[in-house]
């Protein structure tokens, strides 16, 4: 985390803080190297020889990061140098594992479709989105201007699968998809970002009211009843998601992010307790009322009792992880294809099986680096909106990973969320590239030395509209 | 807002730590449990993708893996079908594996530590890893004779080399075709298993080792050994042999087979009592010797309730609880709670044949690496010395008399002296008796010891089991040029 000595604002006046762009380039090169090595190991282990397309893949994959790097060097030169290498290595590992599962499918003769090239295409679209965001969005504070529009868009995206017929929106019991013409989109992934932007703008606006007007009860600052409105509204939305889309993941994600952002904005721990209480209450009621929630929870508590039914996926996932053990079966050496939907929901257990405990923990640590660099950005950035936005986005990645990995390892009930950057799935990958683009933009602002003619000092608590008006 | 942000950062660290701890728990603490779970087919499919080693008898592969075109790269085959089923067991996708396939799986699958250096070499040479071969001690002639003898009955035959403990033959009927349980077609496997399940006697049970039965008069050899070992008895010592024996402390009377009389004088020599298998004489002899001597001798012969690993784990044999002198009388003629596996019965004959020294029975002669180099050769081991060579000689003399003059005549081999003992064990009212024979040949220079068990054979050990034992021993002696 950010110690005072690494705080760019602590730099002596007049000195320019290092941009660390070359560090980023070297790390990106390393990430590409790791990816290519992993791809080669997969090919040699499974087919005995390198595939002809590996050169194309390698060139393409490397080109993506060269483009990303050049754009960042030009348009966000002070951006945090660790964000993108972490994303690159995660994306590369994901592509490798998807390719590895493609090969398993081809060998079993189950399918002739290859998903890895499709995922590479999605990554390319993700990079396009990244470039667009970094180039067009020159100041993250502009986003707050569109906060209410984005909030509405987010709600619509979130609600869309619920109102669409199940034939379009339901996969494996969760109504969180839009499937049109062979493409599957999880609009929730985009809704997540839109809503975080909205939350950030809204909370910066209202945080004084939410923080100050409170009564002290039993050592806790309890907000006034009428100020409970926003948290209740989000709570209702997430309960609706849980009930109508049967998606504990999106529900948990949405509510968790909001409550944490509320806490950060108001500095009132009571909001965390209120949020926790609300969610526990809502979840309990949902458990009592809805059969599918009960089934989920029962299979979570004892997956082995339902090993041939609802617990099958989780049990297979645990088998994979257990068989992998400390060192793993080696890339191409395990049977991760025995876990259903290994490419998307269960890609983490595929990684755990073949890379072992060491590999899986390394992947978790890479996420940790990504998240903590994001949170560091939010600590350092000067404006309140940027702080809250960066904090919300970074926490969203952490919270999503926790919910997903917790699900496939039996720590939490299974959800339909995907592992960011690694799992197969276009919407998740593209949306997360967008998320990182915003983080990169904020981190550039955070580390950029203040312009020599000091701008009129803006109180952090003041409304963002005033800041934007400059 | 920085203070709560720092706390969020710490919370994230805590959440990720939770994940890491949980993954540690799954991949380290529960790793073995998850790996070996019956629902986890990973280890099995991994095994199927390797060339599993063969099980070899007399230079012929009785279980081997052949390459196939389907996803499981190798198919297990058993060319001799049911003949070796009791020993080889099966290697099934659905029902795990059994018998040898299970007991020496590490070698056959190539994961045994003795194959380790070769596996390292495989890593560097890119050679496909393969399993090692297991060469059994079985003799094809003995095995075929045993299977022929057991045709149509439920039972088991065990033949041992008395001087080493090597198992020369091990058969159990009814039997089955292990290949049909080891195919790659789950539906066909299930159908065949259902067919086997429908049978009254489970063909997959190896009756030679996995179950124990009342031995009847076969146990009299052990009581004789206990008597002779006291030094107070010789084969010619005259002991009481009444027509009816009232068991001490009860009004229950014990009679001889078919109510016959052992001796008009109501007493006879020990050798004569064994020759005609006199129940009253041995019941009284057991009572006179006392529980401790009988039990200790039984344990010295291996009846200590513990199984052996030959390398399959066998059921134990024991004399059971003896609560009273009456019970001791019944136990002394191999009834009541006395139980023996056919393997144990063969061990009794083998110990007598080997001058009173019991060798540990074993089935694996050699373990060979895939390139046929021998990486392990069996080393015969002594299990115990139940009787002195002198007592063993006396027992041999008595058992020769059983075959020459007594209940075991049907085991005779032309031109060769045979020693043996019959057993006819009562099972329950209205249920046919179990029929036993144990013996060895040649009596003066024993090369093979056998036990034949026929469940509910309905006759006597002398007329049902003794002829099978004779054929098995003769097959071996002739096969050896004897």
From TrEMBL, chain A:
Metal-binding found in the keyword field: no
Residue stretches spanning the membrane: 25-42, 54-72, 79-99, 119-137, 146-164, 176-204, 248-264, 271-290, 355-371, 392-415, 421-440
This protein's UniProt keywords: Cell shape, Membrane, Transmembrane, Transmembrane helix
Gene Ontology CC entries for this record: cell division site; plasma membrane
Pfam family, one: FTSW_RODA_SPOVE
Record membrane topology: Multi-pass membrane protein
Keyword Transmembrane helix: yes
Signal peptide coordinates: none
Subcellular location: Membrane
Region (Disordered): 448-470
Gene Ontology annotations of biological process type: cell division; regulation of cell shape
GO molecular function: lipid-linked peptidoglycan transporter activity
Protein name in the entry: Cell elongation-specific peptidoglycan biosynthesis regulator RodA
Organism expressing this protein natively: Geodermatophilus nigrescens
Automatic annotation (TrEMBL), chain B:
Biological process terms in GO annotation: cell wall organization
GO molecular function terms listed in the Swiss-Prot or TrEMBL record: penicillin binding; peptidoglycan L,D-transpeptidase activity
Domain Penicillin-binding protein transpeptidase: 155-474
GO cellular component entries: plasma membrane
InterPro entries registered for this protein in UniProt: Beta-lactam/transpept, Beta-lactam/transpept-like, PBPA_dimer, PCN-bd_Tpept
Domain Penicillin binding protein A dimerisation: 52-134
Protein name: Cell elongation-specific peptidoglycan D,D-transpeptidase
Organism: Geodermatophilus nigrescens
High-level lineage: Bacteria, Bacillati, Actinomycetota, Actinomycetes, Geodermatophilales
